Amino acid sequence: MKIHKNHPLVIFLVVGGLLLFLHSLGVLRPVENFLIYITKPLSGRFYNWSSNLSRSYSDRRTNEDLSAKVAALESEVARLTVNASEYQEIFSENEKLRATMKFITDNNFKSVEAAVIASETTAADSRDLVINRGARDGLRTGLGVVDENGVIIGQVREVKDNIASICLTINTGCRLAASIQNQNHTQGITDGDLGLTIKMDFIPQLEKIAVGDTVITSGLGGNIPRGLVIGQVTQVRNESNEVWQSATIEPIVNLDNLTVVAVIIP
Amino acid sequence: MVKKIWQSLFLVLGLSLIAVFQLAAISNWPPFFNQLNAVLITLVFTLFFLGFRAALWGVLISGLWLDLFSFNFFGLYLITFFLVIIAAERISLKLLTNRSFYSFWLLLLVATVVDQVVINLLRYFSADLSAVFFLSQKSFWLALLYQGIWATILAALLFNLSALMTKRLQPFFLEKKAIV
């Protein structure tokens, strides 16, 4: 087959090849930054709109489940009434959590507010968020990202000049140095589990972990300050014949509809 | 000439808007809905109705937008869409002889499969070779199934809408006249 020089394929290969070549040289950077800059507001609006849509869809689904949950909740209420004394304990734990939130401001950490403008699939089971702040705003890889309540929701995975991608704590490969708020303050690394929950493996069998324990960042590594809440332990797997035990952690915030976040710069 | 300019402008603006919408809105929808690949469907639609040249320009425009916002390597979407359009063009030339609904549907399905395989292969080789290979992951097959369903729904919708607007897609039958 003879391909003429004006064939669309030839034109495409020349233009496309040139684009890739100029991008790798960095020549296109100002143009790329300009295009991202002018698109960010539109992208943000689209994201907010779709976020509201997703929320109302999820609320509708929730309503359908509610009637089934009512019966279970009634027995739960009875049990909770009996355990009213535990409220005092929860109250003190709440105080600790509030202190944790205060930690951010007290320690003079600089935080950069950012809006989520898009999300992108990075692996088969992983979806990163894209925020409207980048290297120009002082962001760098590995920094912690919190929601409006100060709960850590992920960390900066990659940065460009004007935008950055965030891996959520539930995404596989999003690893955080963590500490469980138990007697021994067990240290470990949390990792996302298929975009659903968070897991913490390789915990020595001697460590005592209970369902309901709060998991916080340990501050090791230096990029993320200590004391930010990651989630709560919902399941502990410890077999007597195993050297290690592992814990499943549920985030305490809904990571599906994040629109505003803050990146903490220590 | 003026018509051609308007057509090009419409293609550029339309595809840019769809690419940004795909990134910012569709990707944030609930499961199943977020598997709608609007950019890919638009590109195949462009190939089917406007031709190879227009589709290649479409690949450049939408690929560039997606790559700008992407944190995968630059060119991932450009290369993927290019290969998809080449595959679709080859199939439409070699296998499909008419402009029926079934041709359009088949083209969309093939494009969806090629897109998913190519994009996951490129991601696999460019990122983390130690990760589980995508073909053995349930989420890949589920995404493929959902995208196939979307392709079917939109093929029916877009083809019938287009058939209402142009006579080129109306089916015609040769009348058998009795020989007297």
CATH architecture of the largest domain in chain A: Beta Barrel
Give start-end ranges of low-pLDDT stretches of chain B. none
- Give the mean pLDDT of chain B: 87
In spatial order, strands of the major sheet of chain A run 1-2-5-4-3-12
Helix content of chain A: 25-40%
State the order of secondary-structure elements of chain B, H for helix, E for strand: HHHHHH
Largest sheet of chain B: none
Oligomer description: heterodimer
Query: CATH-wise, what's the superfamily of the largest domain in chain A?
Result: Rod shape-determining protein MreC, domain 2
Count of the domains of chain A: 2
Mean of the pLDDT scores of chain A? Answer: 83
For the report, how would you describe the main beta sheet of chain A?
A: 6 strands, antiparallel, barrel
Q: CA-to-CA gap between the ends of chain A? A: 61 Å
| Measured distance between first and last alpha carbons of chain B | 51 Å
Written as H for each helix and E for each strand, in order along the chain, the element string of chain A is HHHEEEEEEEEEEEE
Which shape of chain B, going by the Cα principal axes? globular
Helix content of chain B: over 70%
Description:
The complex is a heterodimer of chains A (266) and B (180). By secondary structure, chain A is an alpha+beta fold. Chain A folds into two domains: 38-84; 92-266, Beta Barrel (Thrombin, subunit H), CATH 2.40.10.350. Helix content of chain A is 35%, strand content 31%. Chain A has a six-stranded antiparallel beta barrel with strand order 1-2-5-4-3-12. Chain A has a six-stranded antiparallel barrel with strand order 6-7-8-11-10-9. The radius of gyration of chain A is 23 Å and the shape is globular. Chain A starts with 7 loop residues before the first helix and ends with a strand. Chain B is mainly alpha-helical. In chain B, 39% of the residues are buried. Chain B starts with a helix and ends in a 15-residue tail after the last helix. Chain B has one domain: Orthogonal Bundle (Arp2/3 complex 21 kDa subunit ARPC3), CATH 1.10.1760. Chain B has six helices and no strands. The mean pLDDT of chain B is 87. The chains are: A alpha+beta (266), B mainly alpha (180). At the A-B interface, helix 1, helix 2, strand 1 and strand 2 of A face helix 1, helix 3 and helix 6 of B.
